[in-house]
Amino acid sequence: MKKSKVKEHLKHPIFSIISKIVTRENLESYVIGGFVRDLFLHRESKDIDIVVIGSGIELAQKAAKEAGVSKVSIFKNYGTAMLKYKDLEIEFVGARKESYNRDSRNPIVEDGTLEDDQKRRDFTINALALSLHQDNFGELLDPFNGINDLNNKIIKTPMEPIITFSDDPLRMMRAIRFATQLNFTISKETLEAIRTNKDRINIITKERIIEELNKIILSDKPSIGFKLLDETGLLKLIFPEFVRLKGRETRKGISHKDNFYHTLEVLDQLTPKSNNLWLRWSALLHDIAKPNTKRFVDGIGWTFHAHNFIGEKMVPGIFKKMKLPLNEKMKFVQKMVLLHMRPIVLAQEVVTDSAIRRLLFDAGDDVDELMKLCEADITSKNEEKVKKFLDNFQLVRRKLKEVEEKDSVRNFQPPIDGQEIIDIFNLSPCRIIGDIKMAIKEAILDGVIPNEHDAAYQFMLKKGKELGLEPIKKSNKKEPLD
């Protein structure tokens, strides 16, 4: 990209404001890092890093004053400041050089030159800098040939990769994340350095690791990242349960599929349909219990009975260990893991209204996400088999819509509650109340009665009579007409 073209991309008012200040005060200042990388890749970026030879905090305060921005977030310990202006977040930092203690990723920071600052960057493609001084506005400073690496789609470090990754082991995850997001190749030397330094990842907090892993999962083709994590040995350290899915076993001429690669194929097939991070986690974990449930049965072959039930129970432990949220997001993943077999079974059989009602009842508002997961789970190489399954899934989808419109069982609430049963039969709290409620629910789901109060009321009276109960009080709700 020519210098004149670069200038066109620096027309945002913040650049002219900073340029005016640094020129007036005879400072050196540069826009650096991801914004510059993405500019050359023709990708939009809303985060801007400004480096100045001097105080980043002072430059931020002066820029804020010129721009009419009242709030500047200052982080004195790091010598950085951040402000929001129009549609951008701009972070300011003084140029610095860093050294590291082997047992910590927190660096010892000193003032430095621009080249010192570029050396401390993680990768050559993130060390590109554009001058903001008016005398050479838009000039590219690229001491490590980052532009060549961008053009050749290569990830490599400005310094020796062994040193880069030993100093800050999170950069190993970042290398794999950028390779995945950009569909770049990690250089041979850099990849080998990740293998050598993999154990250093243990000094990184789980929160920082999961942040990078989630970015890999949210990429267009997450399997690239997971294969690199596995190849370098990092995956076994950060997500050993997933590595256990690897491998095929053969007995009596019968093999099962490699569930590691199957799972990655499911994840890749899901990505065009959904950018829901937690649905993608559901794809990652849907078969997580298969190593625990694998059995070879003569006359049948390989079985993985109850892997969905056991997988559901494994989810909280995995989430807790990996510092993922232990809230409704985790419960959503549990639900998807538990139910992922249900639509597949329906797609193999004659679809009954009763089975559809039960699926709607159990999945609730998440039934559409469940169907996306199940459709992605069809990874057969037999095109005819895949087409048959997907056609049957369309039938399941139509039936889901028809039954929901007719019976309203998604997020089903029983038309008769426990208090009404107590009032009608003059009961104290006891198991029989739950038995009647369960009988009403089963009758609705089986299509014996419609999902309406009047029908449920009559069914309740009939069920009560079978149990030897006599109603002593009329319901205060509307009763059926004779």
Walk me through the structure.
There is one protein chain. With 482 residues, the chain is an alpha+beta fold. It folds into 4 domains: 3-147, 2-Layer Sandwich (Beta Polymerase, domain 2), CATH 3.30.460.10; 161-238, Hydrophobic Seed Protein, CATH 1.10.110; 259-407, no CATH class; 418-466, no CATH class. Helix content is 52%, strand content 11%. It contains 25 helices and 15 strands. The chain has helices at 3-8, 13-24, 34-40, 56-67, 114-119, 146-152, 161-167, 170-182, 188-197, 206-217, 223-232, 234-238, 240-243, 259-270, 277-285, 290-293, 307-321, 328-339, 342-348, 353-363, 367-376, 383-407, 418-425, 431-445, 453-466; strands at 29-32, 47-52, 73-75, 80-85, 88-94, 96-99, 108-111, 129-131, 140-141, 154-155, 185-186, 250-251, 254-255, 295-297, 301-303. A 7-stranded mixed sheet has the order 3-4-5-2-1-8-9. A two-stranded antiparallel sheet has the order 6-7. Strands 10-11 form a two-stranded parallel sheet. α19 (342-348) packs across α22 (383-407). The longest helix has 25 residues, at 383-407. The protein is elongated. The termini are far apart.
Summarize the structure.
It comes from Labilibaculum manganireducens. By secondary structure, the chain is of the alpha+beta class. The chain contains 25 helices and 15 strands.
